[in-house]
Design brief:
The structure holds two protein chains of two kinds. Chain A is of the alpha+beta class. Chain A is built from twelve helices and twelve strands. Chain A has a five-stranded antiparallel beta sheet. In chain A, strands 9-10-11-12 form a four-stranded antiparallel beta sheet. A three-stranded parallel beta sheet of chain A has the order 1-3-2, with helices on one face. The model of chain A has no long low-confidence stretch (mean pLDDT about 95). Chain B is globular. Chain B has five helices and five strands, in the order ββαβββαααα. The relative contact order of chain B is 0.15. The chains are: A alpha+beta, B alpha+beta. At the A-B interface, helix 2, strand 3 and helix 6 of A face strand 4, helix 3 and helix 4 of B.
Amino acid sequence: MKPFSYVRATNQNTAIQGVADRQSAKFIAGGTNLIDLMKVEVAQPDRLVDITQLPLSEIEINSDGLRIGALARNSDLAYNPEVRSHYPLLSQAILAGASPQLRNMATVGGNLMQRTRCYYFMDIAAPCNKRDPGAGCAAIEGYNRIHAIFGASDKCIATHPSDMCVGLAALDAKVRVAGSNGDRIIPIADFHRLPGDIPERDTVLEQDELIVAIDLPNSPFAKNYHYLKVRDRASYAFALVSVAAALEIENGTIKAARIALGGVAHKPWRAFVAEDILVGAKPTEETFAAAATATIREAKPYRHNQFKVEMAKRAIVRALINATEKS
Amino acid sequence: MVNSDNLNLLLKVNGTQHTLQIDPRVTLLDALREKIGLTGTKKGCDRGQCGACTVLVDGRRINSCLTLAVMYQETEITTIEELAKGDELHPMQAAFIKHDGFQCGYCTPGQIMSAVGLLAEGCPSDDAEIKECMSGNICRCSAYPGIVAAIQEVRQMQPNL
Protein backbone atom coordinates (compact mmCIF):
# COMPACT_ATOMS: atom_id res chain seq x y z
CA MET A 1 0.00 0.00 0.00
CA LYS A 2 1.30 3.46 -0.87
CA PRO A 3 1.75 5.92 2.01
CA PHE A 4 -1.02 8.41 2.70
CA SER A 5 -1.95 10.93 5.33
CA TYR A 6 -5.04 10.33 7.44
CA VAL A 7 -7.51 12.99 8.55
CA ARG A 8 -10.62 12.46 10.61
CA ALA A 9 -13.32 14.92 9.54
CA THR A 10 -15.42 16.47 12.29
CA ASN A 11 -17.95 18.18 10.06
CA GLN A 12 -19.20 18.05 6.48
CA ASN A 13 -17.49 21.22 5.30
CA THR A 14 -14.03 20.27 6.53
CA ALA A 15 -14.53 16.83 5.00
CA ILE A 16 -15.27 18.36 1.60
CA GLN A 17 -12.37 20.84 1.89
CA GLY A 18 -10.13 17.89 2.76
CA VAL A 19 -10.56 16.34 -0.68
CA ALA A 20 -11.41 19.44 -2.76
CA ASP A 21 -7.87 20.78 -2.99
CA ARG A 22 -6.23 17.47 -3.77
CA GLN A 23 -7.07 15.31 -6.78
CA SER A 24 -5.69 12.17 -5.17
CA ALA A 25 -7.47 12.61 -1.83
CA LYS A 26 -10.40 10.32 -1.09
CA PHE A 27 -13.16 9.95 1.46
CA ILE A 28 -13.17 6.73 3.44
CA ALA A 29 -16.09 5.24 5.38
CA GLY A 30 -16.59 1.44 5.38
CA GLY A 31 -13.43 1.04 3.32
CA THR A 32 -14.33 -2.47 2.15
CA ASN A 33 -13.66 -1.68 -1.50
CA LEU A 34 -11.15 1.16 -1.15
CA ILE A 35 -8.74 -0.65 1.22
CA ASP A 36 -8.88 -3.70 -1.05
CA LEU A 37 -7.98 -1.54 -4.07
CA MET A 38 -5.22 0.20 -2.10
CA LYS A 39 -3.66 -3.15 -1.17
CA VAL A 40 -3.23 -4.01 -4.85
CA GLU A 41 -2.30 -0.38 -5.63
CA VAL A 42 -5.17 0.11 -8.06
CA ALA A 43 -6.15 3.00 -5.77
CA GLN A 44 -3.29 5.19 -4.56
CA PRO A 45 -4.80 8.08 -2.60
CA ASP A 46 -2.25 10.30 -0.86
CA ARG A 47 -4.79 11.50 1.71
CA LEU A 48 -7.74 9.73 3.28
CA VAL A 49 -10.48 11.80 4.87
CA ASP A 50 -12.36 9.61 7.35
CA ILE A 51 -16.03 10.64 7.28
CA THR A 52 -17.35 8.02 9.69
CA GLN A 53 -17.85 10.58 12.49
CA LEU A 54 -20.26 12.73 10.44
CA PRO A 55 -23.92 12.49 11.50
CA LEU A 56 -25.15 10.91 8.27
CA SER A 57 -26.37 7.46 9.25
CA GLU A 58 -30.06 8.03 9.99
CA ILE A 59 -32.78 6.18 8.05
CA GLU A 60 -36.06 8.09 8.27
CA ILE A 61 -39.53 7.78 6.79
CA ASN A 62 -41.04 11.14 5.82
CA SER A 63 -44.11 12.24 3.87
CA ASP A 64 -42.27 12.00 0.54
CA GLY A 65 -40.81 8.56 1.15
CA LEU A 66 -37.58 7.46 2.80
CA ARG A 67 -34.33 9.28 3.46
CA ILE A 68 -31.28 7.07 3.88
CA GLY A 69 -28.17 8.69 5.37
CA ALA A 70 -25.09 7.99 3.27
CA LEU A 71 -23.25 6.48 6.25
CA ALA A 72 -25.99 3.96 7.09
CA ARG A 73 -24.43 0.52 6.98
CA ASN A 74 -25.74 -1.86 4.32
CA SER A 75 -27.02 -4.28 6.99
CA ASP A 76 -28.80 -1.49 8.91
CA LEU A 77 -30.62 -0.52 5.73
CA ALA A 78 -31.49 -4.09 4.73
CA TYR A 79 -32.92 -4.97 8.16
CA ASN A 80 -34.59 -1.60 8.84
CA PRO A 81 -38.29 -2.34 9.61
CA GLU A 82 -39.54 0.55 7.41
CA VAL A 83 -37.41 -0.65 4.51
CA ARG A 84 -38.59 -4.24 4.95
CA SER A 85 -42.24 -3.21 4.90
CA HIS A 86 -42.21 -0.37 2.32
CA TYR A 87 -39.17 -1.19 0.14
CA PRO A 88 -38.67 -4.97 0.46
CA LEU A 89 -37.10 -5.09 -3.01
CA LEU A 90 -34.22 -2.95 -1.74
CA SER A 91 -33.78 -5.15 1.31
CA GLN A 92 -33.68 -8.26 -0.86
CA ALA A 93 -31.15 -6.69 -3.26
CA ILE A 94 -28.78 -5.66 -0.45
CA LEU A 95 -28.91 -9.09 1.19
CA ALA A 96 -28.03 -10.69 -2.15
CA GLY A 97 -24.70 -8.86 -2.10
CA ALA A 98 -21.39 -9.45 -0.29
CA SER A 99 -21.23 -11.24 3.09
CA PRO A 100 -22.69 -10.37 6.51
CA GLN A 101 -19.30 -9.05 7.69
CA LEU A 102 -18.96 -6.77 4.65
CA ARG A 103 -22.57 -5.56 4.91
CA ASN A 104 -21.88 -4.62 8.55
CA MET A 105 -18.96 -2.44 7.40
CA ALA A 106 -19.97 -1.06 4.01
CA THR A 107 -21.97 2.16 3.88
CA VAL A 108 -24.75 3.06 1.47
CA GLY A 109 -22.73 5.93 -0.03
CA GLY A 110 -19.75 3.64 -0.47
CA ASN A 111 -21.90 1.02 -2.18
CA LEU A 112 -22.84 3.65 -4.79
CA MET A 113 -19.12 4.34 -5.30
CA GLN A 114 -18.06 0.69 -5.70
CA ARG A 115 -15.64 0.07 -8.53
CA THR A 116 -15.83 -2.69 -11.09
CA ARG A 117 -14.46 -6.16 -10.35
CA CYS A 118 -13.16 -6.55 -13.92
CA TYR A 119 -10.07 -8.79 -13.54
CA TYR A 120 -7.96 -6.51 -15.72
CA PHE A 121 -8.92 -3.38 -13.76
CA MET A 122 -7.78 -5.17 -10.59
CA ASP A 123 -4.45 -6.27 -12.12
CA ILE A 124 -1.96 -3.42 -12.42
CA ALA A 125 0.11 -5.48 -14.92
CA ALA A 126 -2.77 -5.43 -17.46
CA PRO A 127 -3.72 -2.47 -19.67
CA CYS A 128 -6.94 -0.82 -18.51
CA ASN A 129 -8.47 2.44 -19.68
CA LYS A 130 -10.44 2.78 -16.46
CA ARG A 131 -7.35 2.57 -14.25
CA ASP A 132 -4.87 4.12 -16.66
CA PRO A 133 -6.66 6.24 -19.32
CA GLY A 134 -5.30 5.61 -22.82
CA ALA A 135 -3.59 2.31 -21.90
CA GLY A 136 -6.08 0.15 -23.78
CA CYS A 137 -8.58 -2.49 -22.68
CA ALA A 138 -7.42 -6.04 -21.97
CA ALA A 139 -10.97 -7.30 -21.59
CA ILE A 140 -12.27 -6.61 -25.09
CA GLU A 141 -9.99 -9.24 -26.64
CA GLY A 142 -9.37 -11.08 -23.37
CA TYR A 143 -11.43 -13.31 -21.13
CA ASN A 144 -14.65 -11.35 -20.94
CA ARG A 145 -17.09 -13.79 -19.38
CA ILE A 146 -18.19 -11.39 -16.60
CA HIS A 147 -18.36 -8.28 -18.76
CA ALA A 148 -21.08 -6.01 -20.15
CA ILE A 149 -23.66 -6.85 -22.80
CA PHE A 150 -25.31 -3.41 -22.76
CA GLY A 151 -23.94 0.10 -23.20
CA ALA A 152 -20.23 -0.71 -23.42
CA SER A 153 -17.72 1.23 -25.54
CA ASP A 154 -14.54 0.42 -27.44
CA LYS A 155 -12.67 1.78 -24.42
CA CYS A 156 -14.28 -0.26 -21.62
CA ILE A 157 -16.66 -3.20 -21.22
CA ALA A 158 -16.64 -3.37 -17.40
CA THR A 159 -19.78 -3.84 -15.32
CA HIS A 160 -20.95 -2.13 -12.13
CA PRO A 161 -20.81 -4.70 -9.31
CA SER A 162 -23.51 -3.48 -6.92
CA ASP A 163 -26.77 -5.27 -6.12
CA MET A 164 -28.10 -2.45 -3.95
CA CYS A 165 -27.82 0.04 -6.82
CA VAL A 166 -29.94 -2.21 -9.05
CA GLY A 167 -32.67 -2.08 -6.41
CA LEU A 168 -32.27 1.70 -6.12
CA ALA A 169 -32.53 2.07 -9.91
CA ALA A 170 -35.82 0.17 -9.94
CA LEU A 171 -37.16 2.32 -7.10
CA ASP A 172 -36.22 5.68 -8.73
CA ALA A 173 -33.87 6.78 -5.96
CA LYS A 174 -32.30 10.22 -5.87
CA VAL A 175 -28.78 10.86 -4.64
CA ARG A 176 -28.27 13.96 -2.46
CA VAL A 177 -24.81 15.41 -2.80
CA ALA A 178 -22.98 18.28 -1.05
CA GLY A 179 -19.98 20.03 -2.58
CA SER A 180 -17.82 23.16 -2.47
CA ASN A 181 -20.23 24.82 -4.91
CA GLY A 182 -23.39 23.83 -3.07
CA ASP A 183 -25.78 20.92 -2.96
CA ARG A 184 -27.46 19.02 -5.77
CA ILE A 185 -29.82 16.09 -6.26
CA ILE A 186 -28.95 13.49 -8.90
CA PRO A 187 -31.51 10.90 -10.09
CA ILE A 188 -29.99 7.42 -9.72
CA ALA A 189 -30.36 6.79 -13.47
CA ASP A 190 -27.97 9.71 -14.10
CA PHE A 191 -25.59 9.03 -11.21
CA HIS A 192 -23.60 6.19 -12.77
CA ARG A 193 -22.19 6.69 -16.28
CA LEU A 194 -21.74 4.55 -19.34
CA PRO A 195 -18.02 4.29 -20.18
CA GLY A 196 -17.99 6.14 -23.52
CA ASP A 197 -14.60 7.81 -24.05
CA ILE A 198 -13.93 8.43 -20.34
CA PRO A 199 -14.26 5.04 -18.61
CA GLU A 200 -12.12 6.30 -15.73
CA ARG A 201 -15.23 8.13 -14.53
CA ASP A 202 -17.75 5.72 -12.99
CA THR A 203 -20.16 8.42 -11.86
CA VAL A 204 -21.01 12.09 -12.45
CA LEU A 205 -19.76 13.00 -8.98
CA GLU A 206 -17.08 15.71 -8.88
CA GLN A 207 -13.91 15.40 -6.79
CA ASP A 208 -15.24 17.85 -4.18
CA GLU A 209 -18.68 16.28 -3.82
CA LEU A 210 -19.83 14.10 -0.93
CA ILE A 211 -22.88 11.84 -1.01
CA VAL A 212 -24.95 12.78 2.04
CA ALA A 213 -28.19 10.82 1.54
CA ILE A 214 -30.35 8.78 -0.80
CA ASP A 215 -34.04 9.58 -1.12
CA LEU A 216 -36.65 7.04 -2.16
CA PRO A 217 -40.07 8.24 -3.28
CA ASN A 218 -43.21 6.60 -1.86
CA SER A 219 -43.44 3.24 -3.55
CA PRO A 220 -46.35 1.14 -4.78
CA PHE A 221 -44.00 -1.86 -5.15
CA ALA A 222 -44.11 -3.37 -1.63
CA LYS A 223 -46.34 -6.26 -2.74
CA ASN A 224 -45.18 -7.55 -6.13
CA TYR A 225 -41.41 -7.48 -6.31
CA HIS A 226 -38.45 -9.80 -6.72
CA TYR A 227 -34.67 -9.48 -6.82
CA LEU A 228 -33.19 -12.42 -8.72
CA LYS A 229 -29.44 -12.88 -8.73
CA VAL A 230 -27.71 -15.45 -10.95
CA ARG A 231 -24.10 -16.18 -9.99
CA ASP A 232 -21.40 -18.84 -10.04
CA ARG A 233 -21.89 -19.76 -6.36
CA ALA A 234 -25.04 -19.93 -4.22
CA SER A 235 -23.79 -17.06 -2.05
CA TYR A 236 -21.10 -14.40 -1.77
CA ALA A 237 -20.37 -13.92 -5.47
CA PHE A 238 -20.96 -11.05 -7.88
CA ALA A 239 -23.90 -11.28 -10.26
CA LEU A 240 -23.49 -12.68 -13.74
CA VAL A 241 -26.96 -11.28 -14.27
CA SER A 242 -29.38 -9.87 -11.71
CA VAL A 243 -32.89 -8.48 -12.11
CA ALA A 244 -34.86 -6.17 -9.86
CA ALA A 245 -38.51 -6.53 -10.87
CA ALA A 246 -41.42 -4.60 -9.38
CA LEU A 247 -45.05 -4.52 -10.46
CA GLU A 248 -48.14 -2.65 -9.37
CA ILE A 249 -51.11 -4.79 -10.36
CA GLU A 250 -54.66 -3.45 -10.21
CA ASN A 251 -57.72 -5.49 -11.22
CA GLY A 252 -55.57 -8.03 -13.04
CA THR A 253 -53.70 -5.40 -15.09
CA ILE A 254 -50.18 -4.05 -14.66
CA LYS A 255 -50.49 -0.40 -13.67
CA ALA A 256 -46.78 0.30 -13.15
CA ALA A 257 -43.61 -1.71 -13.74
CA ARG A 258 -39.92 -1.37 -12.98
CA ILE A 259 -37.17 -3.59 -14.37
CA ALA A 260 -33.48 -2.98 -13.66
CA LEU A 261 -30.59 -5.33 -14.43
CA GLY A 262 -27.24 -5.81 -12.73
CA GLY A 263 -24.04 -7.45 -13.97
CA VAL A 264 -24.72 -6.47 -17.57
CA ALA A 265 -23.57 -2.86 -17.94
CA HIS A 266 -21.29 -0.11 -16.61
CA LYS A 267 -24.28 1.08 -14.58
CA PRO A 268 -27.52 -0.43 -13.27
CA TRP A 269 -29.44 -1.05 -16.49
CA ARG A 270 -33.05 0.15 -16.45
CA ALA A 271 -35.05 -1.79 -19.05
CA PHE A 272 -37.49 0.97 -20.01
CA VAL A 273 -38.50 -0.92 -23.14
CA ALA A 274 -39.66 -3.85 -20.97
CA GLU A 275 -41.56 -1.53 -18.65
CA ASP A 276 -43.44 0.00 -21.61
CA ILE A 277 -44.56 -3.45 -22.73
CA LEU A 278 -45.65 -4.48 -19.24
CA VAL A 279 -47.73 -1.42 -18.38
CA GLY A 280 -51.37 -1.90 -19.36
CA ALA A 281 -50.92 -5.62 -20.06
CA LYS A 282 -52.01 -8.67 -18.09
CA PRO A 283 -49.31 -10.19 -15.85
CA THR A 284 -48.89 -13.39 -17.86
CA GLU A 285 -45.81 -15.35 -18.83
CA GLU A 286 -46.37 -14.34 -22.47
CA THR A 287 -46.26 -10.65 -21.53
CA PHE A 288 -43.14 -11.23 -19.47
CA ALA A 289 -41.44 -13.09 -22.34
CA ALA A 290 -42.27 -10.22 -24.73
CA ALA A 291 -40.76 -7.70 -22.28
CA ALA A 292 -37.64 -9.82 -21.85
CA THR A 293 -37.20 -10.38 -25.59
CA ALA A 294 -37.46 -6.64 -26.26
CA THR A 295 -34.84 -5.92 -23.58
CA ILE A 296 -32.18 -8.22 -24.99
CA ARG A 297 -32.64 -6.93 -28.55
CA GLU A 298 -30.11 -4.18 -27.69
CA ALA A 299 -27.56 -6.65 -26.27
CA LYS A 300 -24.03 -6.73 -27.72
CA PRO A 301 -22.15 -9.66 -26.22
CA TYR A 302 -18.42 -10.43 -26.49
CA ARG A 303 -16.63 -13.69 -27.09
CA HIS A 304 -17.10 -15.27 -23.65
CA ASN A 305 -20.28 -13.67 -22.36
CA GLN A 306 -22.81 -14.59 -25.03
CA PHE A 307 -24.56 -16.79 -22.47
CA LYS A 308 -25.56 -13.64 -20.59
CA VAL A 309 -28.04 -12.65 -23.30
CA GLU A 310 -30.23 -15.73 -22.90
CA MET A 311 -29.60 -15.68 -19.14
CA ALA A 312 -30.84 -12.07 -18.91
CA LYS A 313 -33.95 -12.95 -20.90
CA ARG A 314 -34.83 -15.92 -18.70
CA ALA A 315 -33.95 -14.03 -15.50
CA ILE A 316 -36.34 -11.20 -16.39
CA VAL A 317 -39.17 -13.70 -16.97
CA ARG A 318 -38.39 -15.63 -13.78
CA ALA A 319 -38.15 -12.46 -11.67
CA LEU A 320 -41.50 -11.24 -12.98
CA ILE A 321 -43.17 -14.60 -12.31
CA ASN A 322 -41.79 -14.59 -8.77
CA ALA A 323 -42.95 -10.99 -8.29
CA THR A 324 -46.45 -11.89 -9.45
CA GLU A 325 -46.65 -14.96 -7.24
CA LYS A 326 -45.73 -12.93 -4.15
CA SER A 327 -49.16 -11.35 -3.73
CA MET B 1 5.76 11.52 -1.74
CA VAL B 2 3.51 11.71 1.26
CA ASN B 3 4.87 10.44 4.52
CA SER B 4 2.67 8.10 6.44
CA ASP B 5 3.44 9.63 9.81
CA ASN B 6 2.90 7.47 12.83
CA LEU B 7 -0.31 8.29 14.62
CA ASN B 8 -1.10 7.88 18.29
CA LEU B 9 -4.05 5.64 18.75
CA LEU B 10 -6.11 4.25 21.62
CA LEU B 11 -7.70 0.87 20.88
CA LYS B 12 -10.00 -0.93 23.31
CA VAL B 13 -9.66 -4.67 22.75
CA ASN B 14 -11.36 -7.27 24.98
CA GLY B 15 -11.96 -4.59 27.60
CA THR B 16 -8.34 -3.42 27.76
CA GLN B 17 -7.10 -0.06 26.45
CA HIS B 18 -3.97 -0.21 24.30
CA THR B 19 -1.95 2.88 23.37
CA LEU B 20 -0.32 2.39 19.98
CA GLN B 21 1.86 4.40 17.66
CA ILE B 22 1.13 3.19 14.17
CA ASP B 23 1.38 3.99 10.49
CA PRO B 24 -2.15 4.75 9.21
CA ARG B 25 -1.72 1.92 6.68
CA VAL B 26 -1.87 -0.71 9.42
CA THR B 27 -5.06 -2.71 9.21
CA LEU B 28 -7.07 -3.56 12.29
CA LEU B 29 -5.99 -7.19 11.77
CA ASP B 30 -2.29 -6.35 11.77
CA ALA B 31 -2.70 -4.05 14.78
CA LEU B 32 -4.32 -6.90 16.75
CA ARG B 33 -1.75 -9.50 15.73
CA GLU B 34 1.49 -7.57 15.36
CA LYS B 35 1.12 -4.61 17.72
CA ILE B 36 -1.04 -6.01 20.53
CA GLY B 37 0.04 -9.64 20.21
CA LEU B 38 -3.42 -11.18 19.95
CA THR B 39 -2.67 -13.79 17.29
CA GLY B 40 -5.93 -15.73 17.69
CA THR B 41 -7.42 -13.67 14.87
CA LYS B 42 -6.04 -15.18 11.65
CA LYS B 43 -4.84 -13.69 8.40
CA GLY B 44 -6.15 -15.77 5.51
CA CYS B 45 -6.67 -14.01 2.20
CA ASP B 46 -6.14 -10.49 3.64
CA ARG B 47 -8.70 -9.31 1.04
CA GLY B 48 -12.07 -9.76 2.78
CA GLN B 49 -12.89 -12.96 0.96
CA CYS B 50 -12.26 -15.74 3.52
CA GLY B 51 -13.48 -14.44 6.88
CA ALA B 52 -10.56 -15.84 8.93
CA CYS B 53 -9.97 -12.34 10.35
CA THR B 54 -13.53 -11.88 11.67
CA VAL B 55 -13.78 -9.92 14.92
CA LEU B 56 -16.66 -8.11 16.64
CA VAL B 57 -16.77 -4.32 16.76
CA ASP B 58 -19.43 -3.07 19.17
CA GLY B 59 -20.89 -6.56 18.98
CA ARG B 60 -21.06 -6.74 15.17
CA ARG B 61 -18.91 -9.05 13.05
CA ILE B 62 -16.55 -7.43 10.54
CA ASN B 63 -13.48 -8.37 8.46
CA SER B 64 -10.56 -6.85 10.35
CA CYS B 65 -8.27 -7.15 7.29
CA LEU B 66 -10.26 -4.65 5.22
CA THR B 67 -10.16 -1.72 7.55
CA LEU B 68 -7.64 0.61 9.14
CA ALA B 69 -6.91 0.35 12.85
CA VAL B 70 -6.87 4.14 13.12
CA MET B 71 -10.60 4.21 12.30
CA TYR B 72 -11.57 2.11 15.33
CA GLN B 73 -10.89 4.42 18.25
CA GLU B 74 -13.83 4.71 20.67
CA THR B 75 -15.14 1.26 19.77
CA GLU B 76 -15.21 -2.03 21.67
CA ILE B 77 -13.29 -4.69 19.79
CA THR B 78 -13.78 -8.34 20.74
CA THR B 79 -11.50 -11.13 19.51
CA ILE B 80 -11.52 -14.91 19.93
CA GLU B 81 -9.26 -14.56 23.01
CA GLU B 82 -12.15 -12.98 24.93
CA LEU B 83 -14.64 -15.84 24.53
CA ALA B 84 -13.37 -18.44 26.99
CA LYS B 85 -13.37 -17.53 30.69
CA GLY B 86 -10.23 -19.23 31.94
CA ASP B 87 -10.66 -22.95 31.27
CA GLU B 88 -14.37 -22.58 30.66
CA LEU B 89 -15.08 -22.51 26.95
CA HIS B 90 -17.69 -20.28 25.37
CA PRO B 91 -20.71 -22.40 24.37
CA MET B 92 -19.86 -21.86 20.69
CA GLN B 93 -16.29 -23.11 21.20
CA ALA B 94 -17.57 -26.18 23.05
CA ALA B 95 -20.13 -26.86 20.32
CA PHE B 96 -17.48 -26.61 17.57
CA ILE B 97 -15.43 -29.28 19.38
CA LYS B 98 -18.45 -31.49 20.02
CA HIS B 99 -19.63 -31.38 16.39
CA ASP B 100 -16.21 -31.48 14.68
CA GLY B 101 -16.71 -27.99 13.29
CA PHE B 102 -13.09 -27.86 12.10
CA GLN B 103 -10.18 -29.92 10.86
CA CYS B 104 -6.97 -27.90 10.49
CA GLY B 105 -8.38 -25.09 12.63
CA TYR B 106 -7.03 -22.10 10.74
CA CYS B 107 -10.44 -20.65 9.84
CA THR B 108 -11.94 -21.61 13.21
CA PRO B 109 -11.46 -18.34 15.18
CA GLY B 110 -13.12 -16.47 12.32
CA GLN B 111 -15.89 -19.06 12.05
CA ILE B 112 -16.59 -18.90 15.78
CA MET B 113 -16.55 -15.08 15.92
CA SER B 114 -18.84 -14.97 12.90
CA ALA B 115 -21.19 -17.51 14.52
CA VAL B 116 -21.26 -15.49 17.77
CA GLY B 117 -22.02 -12.37 15.71
CA LEU B 118 -24.77 -14.23 13.89
CA LEU B 119 -26.46 -15.27 17.14
CA ALA B 120 -26.43 -11.63 18.29
CA GLU B 121 -28.03 -10.56 15.00
CA GLY B 122 -30.84 -13.09 15.44
CA CYS B 123 -29.96 -16.46 14.00
CA PRO B 124 -32.37 -18.13 11.54
CA SER B 125 -33.54 -21.63 12.45
CA ASP B 126 -33.17 -23.19 9.02
CA ASP B 127 -29.88 -24.91 8.04
CA ALA B 128 -29.92 -23.34 4.56
CA GLU B 129 -30.36 -19.85 6.03
CA ILE B 130 -27.57 -20.43 8.54
CA LYS B 131 -25.29 -21.40 5.65
CA GLU B 132 -26.24 -18.19 3.82
CA CYS B 133 -25.55 -16.17 6.98
CA MET B 134 -22.12 -17.83 7.31
CA SER B 135 -21.13 -17.45 3.65
CA GLY B 136 -18.47 -14.87 4.55
CA ASN B 137 -16.39 -17.61 6.21
CA ILE B 138 -14.62 -20.17 4.09
CA CYS B 139 -13.33 -23.51 5.41
CA ARG B 140 -10.64 -25.14 3.29
CA CYS B 141 -11.21 -28.47 5.06
CA SER B 142 -14.95 -28.20 4.36
CA ALA B 143 -16.13 -28.73 7.94
CA TYR B 144 -19.38 -26.98 7.07
CA PRO B 145 -21.83 -29.69 8.31
CA GLY B 146 -20.20 -29.61 11.75
CA ILE B 147 -20.16 -25.81 11.79
CA VAL B 148 -23.89 -25.67 11.04
CA ALA B 149 -24.62 -28.34 13.67
CA ALA B 150 -22.61 -26.38 16.26
CA ILE B 151 -24.49 -23.17 15.51
CA GLN B 152 -27.81 -25.00 15.65
CA GLU B 153 -26.96 -26.40 19.08
CA VAL B 154 -26.02 -23.03 20.56
CA ARG B 155 -29.02 -21.36 18.92
CA GLN B 156 -31.34 -23.87 20.57
CA MET B 157 -29.66 -23.27 23.94
CA GLN B 158 -30.63 -19.61 23.82
CA PRO B 159 -33.84 -19.18 25.82
CA ASN B 160 -35.41 -16.44 23.71
CA LEU B 161 -34.98 -18.02 20.27
